[in-house]
Description:
Elements (H helix, E strand, L loop, with lengths): L2 E4 L3 E7 L14 E7 L1 H11 L4 E7 L5 H9 L1 E8 L5 E7 L5 E6 L8 H8 L7 E5 L5 H10 L3 E5 L17 E5 H8 L4 H11 L4 E5 L5 E5 L2 E5 L12 H14 L4 H15 L12 H6 L4
Parallel strand pairs: 1-4, 1-8, 2-6, 4-5, 8-9, 9-10, 10-11
Antiparallel strand pairs: 2-3, 6-7, 11-12, 12-13
Helix pairs in contact: 1-7, 3-4, 5-6, 7-8
Amino acid sequence: MKVLNFGSLNLDYTYQVAHIVRAGETILAKEVNMNLGGKGFNQSVALSRAGLVCFHAGLVGEEGLEFYDACETFGIKTDYIKTVTGRCGHTVIQVDENGQNSIVLFGGANQKNSKEYVDEVLKNFDTGDVIILQNEINELPYLIDQAFAKGMTIVLNPSPYDERLEECDLGKVSVFVLNETEGQQMTGMTTPATIISAMAASYSNAKIVLTLGEGGSIYHHGDEELYQPAFKVDAVDTTAAGDTFTGYFVAGLIKKLPMREVLINSSKAAALAVTKHGAASSIPFMSEVELFNTD
């Protein structure tokens, strides 16, 4: 079985600020850093650091060539990454004194995928292989349809949520990993219990994981439902917490670990990630997760 993450590759420009800027306000940033990120890249790093061999597919612009070396450093296979003319995807991230963030995303090369490129990548995968998708790239409906036709297991993190997701046949998705805001947007429900209930009614065969930030996470599949509390840490930057959780959760599923262990490892990894600045660079190794003392 092979694991493919077909996802975004972004240059993250992170600004440390006293508070998230308000409309009409200009504030002074205390520090600025540029890091490699993107939901796709971050989740591939998490998959790799959780112990999986992960292939990444995606497009970078002409200033994004360092992604190739970074993937090699992180242990991510770059066979299906391509360079195109134009700008990379990039983000402008504000991180406040409490570690909370706000993000502006420019799609760039991530929005230049073609059906031909999708076909070129997917011809190397087959029934039983796993594909992980997010909504920071274009051609998502085609990717879902083609992966499903090949018999691949489809994992979707429907983030950022927008109207393009309504063009996708989400009934073909095997695993949803989403946060509370995305759950509200997908279902129209406002509480974790009603979000889970609505998702389960619409996608009865899918595994559903709803992350709640400091409130923990909920897993639902069929008659099984588990709640996992979050682990308390001193947060400095929450940027890659969700991507870390997603990568570790998918890794645990593929390793066929008991679901409680999968949730604990994912929650520990996300907690460790928020104790460091940056996105991909903050994602812990499995060895760190195993040593994490939660007492």
